[in-house]
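pinned: reference chain
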Amino acid sequence: MSEISPPPSPRRATVVTLSELAGVAPSTVTRALKGDTRISKKMRDRILGLAKEHGYMPNALARTLSSGKSGLYGLVLGSAENPFYMELLHEATRQAEKLGFRLLIIHAGGGPIEDITAQSLIQYQVDGCIISSAILSSRAAEICAQNNVPLVMVNRVALAHGCFVTCDNRAGGAEIARLMIARNRRRFGLIYTASSSSTSREREEGFVSELEQAGLELTIRIDGHSNYDGGFAAGQQIANLPLPERPDAIFALSDIMAMGVLDGLRLASINVPEDIAVAGFDGLASSARPIYNLTTIQQPLPLMIQRAFELLKARTLDPSLPDELIAMRGKLIVRSSTGQA
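pinned: its structure tokens
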């Protein structure tokens, strides 16, 4: 008994197959699909109808080869332990979709961007890259510059090749200090991160400088390791201090660490804000939950991402444009974690 072979898979529709169906040259199909008015409306409608009927999808690789532009942008993210980077990913994806761009996650997590990562940007023919975390080595920056791959640092300051779009971290840190001083707090703790990033350094500098201008100083600094667990451990450590040594105000350099601090303090029966006021930085959606109700500086993330894409797009059209350095003011959101005025 002979076996019945399955029917052959239908051939994927291409510009060539559409041209055969329409009885025109492939170049005519290409122009019609782009809406070129040199092709009659009747023929454009016929070709668009055939494309829909046969499930035609443009070949992104062919488009890249013909135009030299892929519409693909690299994205470098920080650790998933910090929800800020997930919010950044969501916002970048949303805006990229509206612009007709595609995102490729090149690197995620802490640590430097190695040369091999920079080479991946070239191999995948990305039109540009947004870097929201990690350190860009001078060699990696050189690789991108030599291949005309524009870079925009978001929430970071570019020390080499590339533009940057960031929140004014120093001003935000100073604003938190002024708020705490206005709340009559006089003993200050800082939950920092050992990372060498410009973000954490500037937030601390702004906070400490404002304290010094008021004749005040930090009483304790604890490394919160840029995550919830580090903040929680810092909160417990502070709760175990003798009362005369315990700060009455804590500034954590990120919301995720501040939320950990709040849970560590409350588990030790420390009242917030009566005993200790707590503030963070970033403006995470989760910081507004009733269990935290955290005072914070909200970064203008949608606008930062919008400007990043604008800078990248401009430099894909004209690589000779100079680097731009953009700092945006964050918004102070006062909640119950720092008490009433």
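why pinned: The chain has twelve helices and 14 strands. The longest strand covers residues 102-108.
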